[in-house]
Amino acid sequence: ACCMDAHGKQRLASVYDEWKADLLKKGSAAVNEDRLREAVDQWKKVLLIDSHNAEAQKYISDTEPIIEQRVKELMVRGDKAYEEGAIATALDNWQQAAALDPTNTDVQAKLKQVSAGKLAESLRKKASAAYTEGDFPTALARGDEALKINPKDQASKSLRARIVKAQSSGFKSIYDKAVKDLAAGKLLAAKRGFEQARDLEPSNTKVNDNLQKVAKRIDDSIARHTQDGNEAHRSGNKDAAKKAFEAVLALDPTNKDAAAAVKQLTGKESTVVASGEKITELRKKIITAYLSNDMITVEKLSKQALDIQPGNAEMTSYRDRARAKLKRGTSQGA
Question: Would you say 176 and 163 are in contact if contact means Cβ atoms under 8 Å apart?
Answer without folding.
Answer: no
